[in-house]
């Protein structure tokens, strides 16, 4: 969804850089020494949030595609980014059964086999967002429809105008 959203945003935001902060890639490159304890997960989210706030401060758009399981860490990131521009929280709320069925990385199978512990949503907490800007359930819609729902919400919320990005 993140990559498709960026492609669609480029149609509106021709004058602004759009950066993808992919949770897996950021963890590999900036947080490789961190584990999956609550403290390490919060630190990883803060690192991504700091980078996102710097992108925003320089008039860019940061798309953060990651699992951020803790409400307090998400709020901290919202506060940082909001100092410099808008913050729009997209909650991808897809059922555990659908996630397990898809399992593109084989992670749910590894959890089932006992190879992975502290897996978010299984044996590690995920605090659902109380007031996300939009909630998308991908169980019955494809990426194109999900992205269009996000674009329409960005327009109705004033982040995008018919032909351009709002500042």
Short description:
The protein is mainly alpha-helical. It is 47% helix and 10% strand. The longest helix is centred in the N-terminal third of the chain and has 20 residues.
Task: Give a description of the structure.
The protein has 167 residues and is mainly alpha-helical. The chain folds into two domains: 120 residues, 3-Layer(aba) Sandwich (Rossmann fold); 32 residues, no CATH class. 47% of the residues lie in helices and 10% in strands. It contains seven helices and four strands; from the N terminus they run αβααβαβααβα. The strands form two sheets. A two-stranded parallel sheet has the order 1-2. Strands 3-4 form a two-stranded parallel ribbon. The chain is globular, with a radius of gyration of 16 Å.
So, CATH architecture of the largest domain? 3-Layer(aba) Sandwich
**Level of helix content?**
40-55%
Parts with pLDDT < 50 across at least 5 consecutive residues: none
Please count the helical segments.
7
For the biggest sheet, the summary is: 2 strands, parallel
Number of domains: 2
End-to-end Cα distance, whole Å, is 23 Å
Rounded to the nearest angstrom, the radius of gyration is: 16 Å
Which structural class do you get from the secondary structure elements? mainly alpha
- In round numbers, the mean pLDDT is 92
Oligomer designation: single chain
Count of strand segments = 4
The third-level CATH topology of the largest domain is: Rossmann fold
CATH first level of the largest domain: Alpha Beta
Order of helices and strands: HEHHEHEHHEH
Strand order of the largest sheet: 1-2
For CATH, the homologous superfamily of the largest domain is named as: P-loop containing nucleotide triphosphate hydrolases
Task: Write down the overall geometry.
Answer: globular
Indicate the proportion of strand residues. Answer: 5-15%
């Amino acid at each position: 969804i993140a990559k498709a959203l960026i492609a669609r945003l480029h149609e509106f935001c021709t004058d602004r850089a759009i950066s993808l902060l992919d949770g897996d890639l950021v963890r590999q490159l900036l947080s490789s020494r961190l584990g999956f304890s609550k403290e390490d997960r919060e630190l990883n989210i803060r690192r991504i949030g700091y980078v996102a706030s710097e992108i925003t401060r320089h008039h860019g758009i940061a798309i953060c595609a990651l699992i951020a399981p803790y409400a307090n860490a998400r709020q901290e990131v919202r506060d940082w980014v909001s100092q410099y521009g808008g913050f729009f929280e997209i909650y991808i709320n897809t059922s555990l059964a659908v996630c397990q069925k898809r399992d593109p990385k084989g992670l749910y199978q590894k959890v089932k086999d006992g190879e992975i512990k502290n897996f978010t949503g299984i044996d590690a907490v995920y605090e659902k967002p109380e007031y996300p800007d939009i909630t998308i359930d991908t169980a019955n819609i494809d990426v194109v429809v999900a992205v269009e729902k996000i674009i329409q919400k960005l327009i109705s919320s004033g982040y995008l105008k018919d032909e351009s990005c709002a500042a």
